[in-house]
Amino acid sequence: MPKDDSNLTDSSGDGPRPGLVPRFLSWLFATGSGSARSTMHRTHEELFRMRGELATLRAEMEALQAAVGRRDIATLDELLRGGNRRQVEALIRDRTQTVPLPDGSVLCRVLGRFKMFTDAADGGIAPHLLLDGYWEYWVTEFVCRNVARGETAIDVGALYGYYTILLADLVGPEGKVAALEPNPWLHWLLRRNIVLNGLNTIVSVRRVAATEAARDVVTIPAMLAGPADGPLAREYSLHEGRRVCAAPGVALQDFEPGSIDFLRIGCAASADSIVAGLPALIDRSPGLRILMEFDADRCRDAGAMLAALAARYPLRFIDGDSRAKPCTIEDLMGPRRIATLFLSGIEPC
């Protein structure tokens, strides 16, 4: 069979067909006519559009790197102004480093510039901090948009202090942050993180548990306790097969005098007890914004707690796009049983 059929006659009677090579070149460069030409024109247009989008994205990345420096990220505010979510996450992730330490902790860098000690045995938040350098980025971005310079904030259930440090960076030297963490090991790591980042003039750290009323001792489950032979090991005991620790209890309405601007409640298991100790604080804080971790299956009476909150504030949850969206008690008791809630009379940014 000949490789070039240019000498074969065309059965249609319109003359000889072009050879195989000319026909292939005509298809490749869309110089012919008919459906092949139309298809190739569309393909060329799509490729041209994609090249344009790629060039635009490259220019945005170069502008962001020039503004904040790929290796020297200055502030969270600059990051948020400088690019979209993928760009910011990439810049933060590019700055991650980890250093295992003999005391059972791992030192890492979060949010591109802060140093943080985490528990080497933690399988929850620590892997995200160690590998990505951030935690719940959609919530992180929301907090950055809704906390201002000079404000007063409380972080309940601070753990290592991820949100504590974030809040301290946002309120600045003109503001103040109180961090509550009842677990002795986590409280020790939290204090180290605050001092390490030079934030001890802005942040006060207390080893107390937020409850509905003041108590001398509150027993708290302790998932993380540090090294078994460490100096804090004696602070933990077993109760009904679970490791627990003890701390004083305080109602938030009695914890800080005056009004509060921002309150983060990171203890989903004790959220209803914490909310029961809020009424007086809410009354004297007209601009209060509450960010609360909610889990319907971990609260003692989730429905009653939501009803009490809904009587004061519109119910909203933080969606994956970092925006606060309306929800109902039925939603939170049904399909959306785990959520980060935003509660405030102020419209969020």
Automatic annotation (TrEMBL):
Domain of life: Bacteria
Record-linked Gene3D superfamilies: Vaccinia Virus protein VP39
InterPro entries: FkbM_mtfrase, SAM-dependent_MTases_sf
Name of the featured protein: FkbM family methyltransferase
Organism, scientific name: Roseomonas fluvialis
